[in-house]
């Protein structure tokens, strides 16, 4: 469905702020765009956000900040989740999107390593892209690009044939 992303994100951010405050992490957002209309699967999209936000929270020390921004181009929306955590070494920048790939060299806790693999699958379902960049002086930014118009039924012709 086509939705207005701003109020949708604001609600998610508000819910997450309560969880983050337990770790004294503040969440700031800048969703200043003119046209926030996009075709998204709301269930998948909220799970993408929850995964990125929970990673940002999990991999940041107490008292840091998480920043969420939404920007636009004529054909796509660009969402960024930025943290002041430990960042991602170059070696891991692509591997972290694979299933069960956890940065074992930094993690002493047992994680399943499924969150980002799910995010990538869900972003690809939106015909978008997800990648990570490191911040100066610390932390990382996960960038999600979602086209405004997504055709969720590329196989509609095949489906039609199937039902014959
Ligand atoms: P799960 O999400 O399944 O509970 P996970 O968080 O380990 O487990 P992913 O979300 O797929 O798995 O992330 C994969 C790895 O990428 C993490 O183990 C961590 O090493 C690294 N990573 C993810 N997000 C961040 C982040 N914001 N800052 C630093 N490292 C991160
Ligand atoms: Mg995770």
Automatic annotation (TrEMBL):
Q: What is this protein called?
A: histidine kinase
| Native source organism of the sequence | Euhalothece natronophila Z-M001
Q: Origin, by domain of life?
A: Bacteria
Histidine kinase domain residues: 1-150
Check the UniProt entry and state the signal peptide residues, or none: none
């Amino acid at each position: 469905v086509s939705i207005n992303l701003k109020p949708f994100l604001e609600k998610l951010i508000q819910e997450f702020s309560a969880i983050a405050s337990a770790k004294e992490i503040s969440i700031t957002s800048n969703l200043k765009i003119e046209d926030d209309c996009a075709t998204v699967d709301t269930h998948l999209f909220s799970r993408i956000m929850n995964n990125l936000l929970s990673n940002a929270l999990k991999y940041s020390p107490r008292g840091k900040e998480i920043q969420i921004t939404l920007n636009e181009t004529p054909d796509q929306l660009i969402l960024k989740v930025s943290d002041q955590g430990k960042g991602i070494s170059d070696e891991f920048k692509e591997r972290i999107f694979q299933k069960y790939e956890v940065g074992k060299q930094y993690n002493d806790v047992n994680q399943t390593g499924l969150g980002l693999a799910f995010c990538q699958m869900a972003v690809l379902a939106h015909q978008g892209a997800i990648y990570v960049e490191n911040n100066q002086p610390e932390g990382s930014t996960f960038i999600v690009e979602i086209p405004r118009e997504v055709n969720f039924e590329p196989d509609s012709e095949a489906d039609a044939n199937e039902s014959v």
